[in-house]
Amino acid sequence: MKKILPVLARLIVVACILLLSPKAFGQLTGIKNIPGDYPNVSAAVTDLNLQGVGAGGVTFNIAAGFTESTSAQITITATGTAANPIVFQKGGAGANPVITRTDLGALTTSTIGGQGDAVIMLDGSDFVTFNRIDVQASNSGIEYGYMTNKPNANDGCKNITIQNSVVTMTKGTSGFVVGIHISNGPTSVSVATGQTLTSVAGANENITITGNTIQNVHVPVYVRGGTGSYDQNIIVGQNGAGNILQNFGGGSATTTYGVYFIYANNVSVDYNTINNIAGGGTAHASTFYGVFYSVVSGTVSGSNNAFTTSVSGASASYSLYNGNLATTEAFNNNTFASGTFSSTGAHYMVYASNGTTNKTINGNSIVGTFTRTGAGAIYGYYNFGSPAGGTETLTNNNFSNITNTGAGAIYGIYTFTTTSQNRTCTNNTLANWNTGSGSVYGYYTVSGNNNQVLNNTMNNVTTTGLVYGIYASGNVFTATNNKVSNISSGSTCYGLYAYGTTSTLANDTIFGITQTATGATYGIYMSSSATNGNISNCEVRNLVSAGTTLAGMYLGQGGGTVNRNKVYNLTSTSVLAPTVSGLLIGTNGMDVINNIIGDIKSPAANSASGLAPSVRGINITSATALKNINLYHNTIYLNASSTGANFSTAGVFATINATATTARSWRSRHRVATPS
Fold first, then answer.
1. DSSP at 646
2. In angstroms, rounded to a whole number, what is the distance separating the alpha carbons of residues 69 and 312?
3. CB neighbourhood size of 495 (10 A)
4. Burial 534-553 (b: 16+ CB within 10 A, else e)
5. In terms of pLDDT, which residue wins out, 363 or 106?
């Protein structure tokens, strides 16, 4: 009896201890409070890894305003399921809990995405959510805020959510500090490749990063999948839950990225604010990408983001970049602004130069005035890819209000896909551009198949360089209801330049072009590469040129009809021997019918002789043998005079050819009116 009593006493003590220990209950379930059930997050994670997750999952409520300092990485190895998730969230009202890592780190990472230290790491874990849990690091030796890791080639992290948290790191001059790193299991400090995946089990899947503020980093979000099996379904930002990515890059001379993807399938970057200078950042002096899709596939989305770019130096910069083939691509409703922008490298707002067959580029716009002091080129949209079919749609984009104080060119929409892709470019606006001596291309659209350029506007452009308002072609090219106006150029200027095989221009309006130097000026220019070019119901007016060649329309096509157009109020200010033509017919044969041409002037012209009139209603310079140029029912009104010598005008002028082999026949039933 005496021996039994001590034994019982010991058993009772052990039982009491077990009853007081969370471990006594086996797998963790229900609500756990921090502090309360655990003194801090580190202790809770230690127990979670030991005990695992029970039925219904476990939720850790971390008290609002709670702070924790740790000198070691918090690593979660436990894994949940859809029915048994793991949740870390703020409990109660007030400031987010903050976990700060204070040590120097144990590794020295020498490449972005290489093996490094994190504040919180998920090591092969699934179904884990962090909601309103802030993380910090006090020095640049801690490379990652939140990080997912693959412990082996068959254990990627799946169904991970990081939301509504503030990630504040210390980038210093390091090029390797990342806010949220979705990794391929880095195994070396100097190599980012990571695991060689052998199955889809090794891929990270269903990763959601929303509502966070990520700052004082070199790269806010870095996603690296594996070559054997790409990461799947990565979401960075959603409607009503966009991330704020700020104060990134700047401190390092290496390339920086707001969001980086490589080896990932089905990715989206939507509704985010991406501003590298906000929150105390500085202009980045090397190559800059707001969003960079390095190697991606499937559905690629980058929409409804607000970009503010601040760069310096001589490197190129990109707000949205995808140079890779995907199934579909959508870059819609983004806004672009410039911060401190002194770089001399080219800048691209939307760069989608790839073989993706179906892409939409809709509703993108500039906010305020996009201003740069460097001399590099600026592109609103750029595509020089080679897609095998499909359709590219460019609609309702507004790349207006650009000031380039240097010599850089400006391209509004530049898409040059000479393969079999179709294109629709409609209802876009380009306005209020000012650049020093750089060339200007409003719409540069080339397609190997069907190219539709409809209802677009370009106006209020000033440069001393070359200008193309619309430069377009296609196997079948159509330009209708476009308007190009109020252009000031110091070089050759084209309102609308077309060279498609079969080209149709209808109801286009070109007016208010002023050319201040010696270059040629054309309202509409139809290249000789167009074998069948039709122009109808277009209007060209109010063109002024200091050069010696001015034409309302240049007609170089090898056939077709020029019908019911209006060309009037054309003026050359040259004191030399200019040629001002309403219609300038350069080659081959066509029908010119029912056009109205008038008010063509050259008030200071000094023509060589009366055989070379400066003012010509219809000017035929073609020397193509045996081609008919048929003129029917045109109206030409001339009322021109000049202070120069030997001035003359011609309602219809045809260049004299010395040999019969270069003769043409042309028939005229038209009216030429001159004042009495």
1. T
2. 37
3. 31
4. bbbebbbbbbbbbbbbbbbb
5. 363
Q: Which residues contact 519 (CB under 8 A, 6 or more apart)?
A: 466, 489, 490, 491, 492, 493, 547
Confidence (pLDDT) at 111? 94
Between these two residues, 96 and 2, which has the higher pLDDT value? 96
Which residues have CB under 8 Å from 598's CB, separation 6+? 567, 568, 569, 582, 617, 635, 636, 637, 638, 639
Element (H, E) at 549: strand 549-555
- Give the pTM: 0.92
Peptide bond preceding 613 in cis form (omega within 30 of 0): no
State residue 664's pLDDT score. Answer: 45
Residue 264 token pair: 């990932």
Look at residues 676, 600, 612, 598 and name the one whose alpha carbon lies nearest to residue 646: 612
For 208, the token pair is 């959601």
Q: Which residues pair with 239 in a beta bridge?
A: none
Q: What angle do CA 32, 45, 63 make, to 5 degrees?
A: 45
Residue 549 has pLDDT above 80, yes or no: yes
Is residue 569 within 8 Å of 541, Cβ to Cβ? yes
Give residues with Cβ within 8 angstroms of 181, minimum separation 6: 113, 118, 143, 144, 145, 146, 147, 148, 222, 224
Closest CA to 115 of 137, 144, 138, 140: 144
CA distance 482 to 488: 18
Look-up of token digits 């939140």? 146
Q: For residue 18, give the H/E element and its range.
A: helix 4-20
In 3-state terms, what secondary structure has residue 614?
A: coil
Burial (CB < 10 A; 0-12, 13-18, 19+), residue 626, is exposed
Report the SS3 class of residue 266. strand
pLDDT in tens, 327-345: 999 999 999 999 999 999 9
Helices and strands per DSSP (H, E), number in the chain: 2, 57
Closest CA to 252 of 141, 143, 176: 176
Taking the C-alpha atoms of residue 352 and residue 345, their distance in angstroms, rounded to an integer, is 18
Closest alpha carbon to 262 in 360, 198, 209, 194: 194
In angstroms, the first-to-last Cα distance of the chain is 143
**Residue 307 host element (H or E):** strand 306-311
- What is the token pair recorded at 429? 């606006």
What is the Cα Rg of the chain in Å?
34
